[in-house]
Design the sequence.
């Protein structure tokens, strides 16, 4: 399995650390005006405000990649998100367009938990256990290599918005699904579709074993042992505290939270679902939100007519997403202008072809 190539990977030059916010803001503004339509800056909802202010569009990972695909004018795409998002953007855009990640340390702990070599080692073991009865599905929060693996084996991608539809489809194709890399989204989705928890088992890539006390013949959903480090930070104890201190407050969480947290909440849904739900809520309504802190703080600022808190007020923002700051964004833009672009993300042709199969199978059904 080929893996994505990383071009000109270097670290931030020291002199950028000495610049003032005002100087960096001015220089970024000037470069955006200079490059015009040749530059496109997509920004994920979890980015810092200092970065998101320069985004041409804000959204979730797949939405941003699709907007990159539709923007044929942009020669340079500076993706303010994390590594797997930039990979998807590169796979969906043309060879004449270049995708850059301002800081190569901006990864995703969840995506990194599904290693392609571990996945390829797991597949024959699962085939031996279950025969040809398994269809792989991968959350878009996964590497290009994992998407390629899934595409090769007839599977598809899913998002947190369409996971129910895609899991339901997959179970019409095969008796079982193999869900990567987030066990919680897979478990919550399957449970909502009526599959009992006893019919789900976790695949441990460290031990190459299926973690279950059940007869393997009864297992319908095989969950990769991965998770989002941010959303695992929410607990039922936090929900109990909100119930005690704010009895009329509604709790809404992301489905990357554990099954117990989702079950104890009033509502759960994707990032877009949470944003739309808060926007549509009446003035005076009260919300405790279980998702990334930058987004929660932005929603608090945007909706002063509502009482909004983080379900976990001590939660840190997504640390890898927050690697991108003004200094890295400015460096990326000035490198492009100088003709020495840094941190370009490229995915090889074979991986792209197979990964796009997984993406296409999803997009054809949603």
Sequence:
């Amino acid at each position: 399995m080929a893996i994505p190539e990383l071009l000109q990977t270097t670290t931030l030059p020291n002199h950028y650390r000495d610049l003032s916010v005002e100087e960096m803001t001015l220089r970024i503004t000037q470069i955006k005006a200079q490059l015009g339509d040749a530059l496109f800056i997509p920004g994920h909802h979890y980015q810092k405000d200092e970065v998101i202010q320069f985004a041409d569009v804000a959204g979730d990972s797949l939405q941003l990649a699709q907007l990159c695909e539709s923007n044929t004018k942009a020669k340079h795409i500076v993706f303010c998100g994390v590594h797997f998002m930039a990979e998807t953007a590169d796979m969906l855009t043309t060879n004449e367009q270049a995708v850059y990640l301002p800081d190569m340390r901006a990864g995703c702990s969840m995506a990194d938990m599904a290693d392609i070599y571990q996945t390829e080692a797991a597949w024959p073991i699962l085939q031996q256990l279950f025969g040809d009865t398994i269809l792989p599905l991968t959350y878009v929060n996964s590497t290009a290599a994992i998407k390629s693996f899934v595409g090769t084996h007839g599977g598809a991608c899913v998002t947190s918005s369409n996971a129910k539809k895609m899991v339901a489809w997959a179970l019409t194709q095969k008796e079982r699904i193999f869900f990567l890399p987030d066990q919680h989204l897979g478990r919550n989705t399957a449970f909502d579709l009526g599959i009992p928890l006893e019919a789900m088992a976790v695949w441990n890539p460290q031990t190459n074993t299926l973690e279950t006390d059940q007869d393997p013949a009864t297992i319908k959903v095989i969950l990769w042992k991965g998770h989002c480090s941010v959303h695992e930070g929410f607990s039922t104890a936090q929900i109990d505290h909100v119930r005690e201190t704010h009895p009329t407050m509604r709790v809404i969480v992301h489905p990357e939270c554990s099954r117990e947290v989702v079950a104890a909440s009033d509502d759960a849904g994707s990032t877009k679902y949470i944003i739309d739900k808060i926007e549509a809520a009446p003035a005076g309504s009260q919300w405790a939100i279980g998702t990334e802190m930058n987004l929660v703080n932005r929603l608090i600022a945007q909706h002063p007519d509502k009482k909004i808190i983080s379900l976990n007020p001590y939660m840190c923002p997504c640390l890898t997403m927050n690697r991108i700051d003004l200094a890295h964004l400015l460096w990326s833009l000035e490198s492009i202008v100088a003709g020495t672009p840094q941190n370009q993300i490229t995915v090889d042709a074979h991986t792209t072809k197979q990964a796009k199969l997984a993406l296409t199978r999803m997009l054809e059904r949603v």
Summary: DSSP finds 15 helices and 17 strands in the chain. Residues 122 and 149 are 12 Å apart (CA to CA).
